[in-house]
């Protein structure tokens, strides 16, 4: 089975990040997909990194862009997260829940169906 990697960049998203990770984990866990979630903290100055690290799961890996004092931006955070993935399919998913989880799953399952034909 092919693995799907979801990259979740976040900067100062303490109000949403646990809900985002929990929603992704819960819904992906109900599918037959082999998945990993890469949570990328882009030098937040709130509790985003601490909250990410409190979410423990074999399917969730938290990475932090250490060594920088300021956020480097969404594009850089995504590239950093992409470099940490192992999946054959890599999908970005915003940490502030601006993306819709069920649409994401429908797209992934569509890829699986087409690829298995």
Tell me, what's the shape? globular
Task: Tell me what the CATH architecture is.
Answer: Alpha-Beta Complex
Q: How many separate domains make up the residues?
A: 1
Low-confidence segments, given as residue ranges, are: 112-117
Number of DSSP helical runs: 4
How far from one another are the termini? 14 Å
What percentage of amino acids are in beta strands? 15-25%
- Specify Rg, calculated over alpha carbons: 14 Å
| Total strands | 4
H/E order of the elements? Answer: EHEHEHEH
**Secondary structure: helix percent:** 25-40%
Described by strand count, sense and barrel closure, the largest sheet is: 4 strands, parallel
CATH class membership? Alpha Beta
CATH fold type: Spore Coat Polysaccharide Biosynthesis Protein SpsA, Chain A
Secondary structure class reads alpha/beta
Under CATH, the homologous superfamily reads Spore Coat Polysaccharide Biosynthesis Protein SpsA, Chain A
Mean pLDDT across residues: 82
Largest beta sheet: strand ordering: 3-2-1-4
List keywords for this structure.
single chain, 117 residues, alpha/beta, Spore Coat Polysaccharide Biosynthesis Protein SpsA, Chain A, globular
Describe the model.
By secondary structure, the protein is α/β, with parallel strands linked by helices. The protein has helices at residues 17-29, 48-54, 74-82, 101-116; strands at 3-10, 34-41, 60-64, 89-92. The protein has 4 helices and 4 strands. Strands 3-2-1-4 form a 4-stranded parallel β-sheet, sandwiched between helices. Strand 1 (3-10), helix 1 and strand 2 form a beta-alpha-beta unit. It is globular.
């Amino acid at each position: 089975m092919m693995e799907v990697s979801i990259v979740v960049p976040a900067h100062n998203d303490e109000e949403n990040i646990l809900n985002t990770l929990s929603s992704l984990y819960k819904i992906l866990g109900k599918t037959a997909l082999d998945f990993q979630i890469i949570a990328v903290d882009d030098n937040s100055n709130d509790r985003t990194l601490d909250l990410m690290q409190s979410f423990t799961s074999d399917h969730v890996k938290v990475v932090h862009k250490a060594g920088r004092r300021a956020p480097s931006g969404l594009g850089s955070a995504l590239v950093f997260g992409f470099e940490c993935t192992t999946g054959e399919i890599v999908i970005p998913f915003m940490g502030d829940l601006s993306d819709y989880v069920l649409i994401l799953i429908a797209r992934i399952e569509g890829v699986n169906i087409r690829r298995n034909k």
